[in-house]
Amino acid sequence: MENLSHMFAAVADIGMSARIFTVFWACFLGIVIGMIPGLTATLGVALMTTLTLSMEAEQAILILICMYVGAIYGGSRSAILLNIPGTPANAATSLEGFPLALKGQAGRAMAVATTGSFLGTTVGMLALAILAPWLAEFALDFGSFEFFWLAVFGVVLCGQLTAMEDGLKGWIAGFIGLLVAMVGQESMNGFARFSYGDPNLAGGLGLLPILVGAFGCAEVFSVMRAAALERIANDTRGVLVASVQAFRHSVTWLRSGLIGTFMGVVPGVGEDMGAWVSYAAAKRLSRNPEEYGKGSVEGLLAAETGNSAAVPGALIPVLTLAIPGSAPAAVLLAAMIIHGIRPGPLIMYQQPEFFYSIVAMVFWASVGILVLGLLLTRPLLLILKVRREWLLGVIFTLCVVGAFAISSRIFEVQLMIIFGLIGFMMREMGFPVAPLVLGVVLGPILDSNFRRSLALTQGDFSMFFTRPISAILALLVVVILLAGLLPTRRIFNRLRQMLRGAP
Amino acid sequence: MNTAPKTIRTIDALAGVFTVSLGAAALTEAIRMPRFAERGVDPYTTPGVTPGMIAIALIIFGFLLTIRALRGGSTGAGVTIHVWTRDAVLRIGLTLTIALTYGGFLFGNVPFIPATIAFVFAFTMALELVNADRKVSVPVLLGGAVLLALAAGFGIDFIFREVFLVRLPG
């Protein structure tokens, strides 16, 4: 009851103050960033983090959450109108949205996507409000052994799921991220690792310049390498009617909302998988699977509900375990720490008001995208007409200034550019960037908990495998590694043949 | 196991060798890190323990990637470096040259506003001039690029100095 009152108070606090204007402009900015192909939610949140450093904590986090929710939703616009997902999370949206646009029903498609995003964020928000306190309570039993395995599990799973059928490359990216996190002074003995007397390196490599480089700068390079986009004209009428109709697919949006939330909770996986898994489930369970790929409203609704539900889902491990559920959530985590907020199992005891403020922020962000998405359909289309040659120079400038703004050091700019080049080369060579960033985030957690555990057991590794939660996490890591390394499909096919009595 | 084209196999093999080398270098450094035995530090909390473990994992993963590539197996998913067209090479070459000149040299050494105006103007002009689908004439492009560069230089400077209270170089 007390929790509910905290939540309603937080919702009313934002809704009845000048912060409501912040909600709308930050959501609008997020939608604009999300709908421009190549600019992702991570880039938007990372850039905005550097710009909101001087603000009060709640105001800054409100802006970042609205930017995050808005960008994930905004990507559906270019997915529908250009067949180019504005963010990777909207790839499944283009499969159904673009065929609808080709039939002249872009307005309907955008309305369905808007409603799906609103419903997905709402389902995820409810899950956040209900699950996070429970998970925080559960995580109070975690010791250093469990946190060590959680960090390994996050990197390995993220590597497996983001590496386009090639887990090995994802794991390499994740472990390079962990190695990057080892640079600088360690906490136990004060020794500066991999620093070679350089005071900049001894201070450690900052997460924000790495994020702005790997996601922002690298995206500028990747977009400029790709061929130019084709644009199509379209009919944007009937938006409100289509939005109301989308509510009627209650089973689809409820299921997709829950799937998306779950995918968001899994460390490092995030919105892309939320959309794909929701879309695949909707297709498999649909009464009209033949419509999929030809402009299925149900499929479009599932994809958009799934990716948006993953946003509040990704905040659940951020707030309760200090482990990000997605790449933009990693930036949010960093921003919270910079603003003096300490996410983790104790947040429900130390800062319960802040936790419910986050829930309220997600609620208002979902309202923001619904209102802006339905009312500004035509004006938002103009943004898609801006050419990349005119836009990306300004975006690169913002990356440079954003990296500099963190601590007014040229070193941060150099670091951003180096990770921009690394991120660009990784993409070109088929290595995912998300595990690298997650590795950088989880590196300190892995390091301190690994050494603390070893010190507690005097080098006895058995405790890593005998404590119940540790054992489960260790088993999951082993299963993921084996599934990725062994030719499992071939083994299963052979077993099936054996069972059927074939030679 | 899918059989990948030779170019992708070569790229994967090179990436694998790089990963093994990185892991080996990190392992060497981790072993060389001090153990602080004279301070009575617990040997399991010495600085090299975690980097050493990560380095060993990288060596194993890199070795597996190299072996897989040499055996001809790879999914090849997402590898695009081998499909760069002449236009793509030109665009990325120009982008990198102009962006790195700005971020790596001009920013911090030249006052912010002139450096940014020069960068945005050069970026827009150069990449539009090599754009085969360009829809505007050169005089219009020139005027537009000048306006954009001035707006970016003065606008970003104003927003960061006055709104976000960040002191920019110069």
One letter per element, helices H and strands E, the order of chain A comes to: HHHHHHHHEEHHHHHHHHHHHHHHHH
User: H/E series of chain B, N to C?
Assistant: HHHHH
Proportion in helices of chain A:
over 70%
In round numbers, the mean pLDDT of chain A is 85
Number of domains of chain B: 2
**Range of helix content of chain B:** 55-70%
Please give the most extensive interface between any two protein chains, plus how many residues each contributes.
A-B, 69 and 76 residues
Radius of gyration of chain B: 25 Å
Strand content of chain A is under 5%
How much strand content do the residues of chain B show? under 5%
Number of helices of chain A: 24
Count of beta strands of chain A: 2
Low confidence ranges of chain B: none
Characterise this structure.
- The complex is a heterodimer of chains A (503) and B (170).
- Chain A is mainly alpha-helical.
- Chain A has one domain.
- Chain A contains 24 helices and two strands.
- Chain A has a two-stranded antiparallel ribbon.
- The longest helix of chain A is centred in the N-terminal third of the chain and has 34 residues, at 106-139.
- The model of chain A has no long low-confidence stretch (mean pLDDT 85).
- Chain B has 170 residues and is an all-alpha fold.
- Chain B folds into two domains: 6-82; 84-163.
- In chain B, 69% of the residues lie in helices and 0% in strands.
- The radius of gyration of chain B is 25 Å and the shape is flat.
- The N and C termini of chain B lie far apart (57 Å).
